[in-house]
Amino acid sequence: MTGWLEGSRALVVGAGSGIGRAVVDAYLAEGASVAVLEKDADKSKALAEARPEVPVTVGDATTREANEQAVAAAVDAFGGLDILVNCVGIFDFYQGVGDLDADRIDDGFAEMFSVNVKSHLHSVKAALPALQESERASIILCESTSAYYPGRGGVLYVASKFAVRGMVTSLAHELAPKVRVNGVAPGGTLNTDLRGLDSLGLKQKRLDDTPGREAELAARVPLQVALSGEDHAWSFVFLASERSRGITGDVVHPDGGIAVKR
């Protein structure tokens, strides 16, 4: 793949590590200009040092203000915006309703849906005026295999990813024909910094620290592969490119073939 995004202008929300960072690198390799919104100051600093051509806004993607600042930075730097990607997410480490303390449900629900759902809505709302000025506007939201198959997260995480799935469908209907909206639904991913809910006491727990994770990920899917953010990033490239100009309201599933698992 060379030049699939040549001349495109993109904002990637949640780009400090994992899938988001891989999308930044893939977009740059394909000729796009890329700006970033990232909450973590250390990740933001590292990204800015490694990619000085990337405008980095440090801020919380669950807020209106941070998203508006990031969009403004992208438009100021590039003269407009063609692509919005949101890869923000948090995990619940498979806690079912039976595992949740009743007195933690309210805070857990609020945190999960603020990060995994509201951040997407704020980023779309902030970027929409600029995207509607583009002739090739594309929004790509990060869903999850959890939005399609049980057992890949706890009740709060799965519910939040179903909400993102619904958001993709609703936005695609509302924003056509001017803006295409699609999702990418990765399976389990290596080398991410996906962490748990602070409200459930899981803030310092990282999914990637799970012992034997690579072997477990490979064993659970028909293709017997453990995929990384770099693997998933090419789905985001395709959906942002003119090669997918006839696709909206749909999803790409880089998940090792879990849908055909017996």
Span between termini: 33 Å
Determine the strand fraction and express it as a percent band.
5-15%
- Kindly state the number of beta strands: 9
User: Percent of residues in helical segments?
Assistant: 25-40%
| Radius of gyration over C-alpha positions, nearest whole angstrom | 17 Å
Shape: globular
What's the helix-strand series? EHEHEHEHEHEEHEHE
Secondary-structure-based class equals: alpha/beta
Q: Averaged pLDDT, please?
A: 95
Q: Which residue ranges are poorly predicted, with pLDDT under 50 across at least 5 consecutive positions?
A: none
Please list the strands of the largest sheet in the order they lie side by side: 3-2-1-4-5-6-9
Can you count the helices?
A: 7
Biggest sheet record:
7 strands, parallel
Give an overview of the whole structure.
The protein is an alpha/beta fold. It contains seven helices and nine strands; from the N terminus they run βαβαβαβαβαββαβαβ. It has helices at 18-29, 41-50, 64-78, 105-131, 155-175, 213-219, 229-240, and strands at 9-13, 33-38, 56-58, 83-86, 137-142, 179-184, 189-190, 227-228, 251-252. Helix 1 crosses helix 7. It starts with 8 loop residues before the first strand and ends in a 10-residue tail after the last strand. The mean pLDDT is 95.
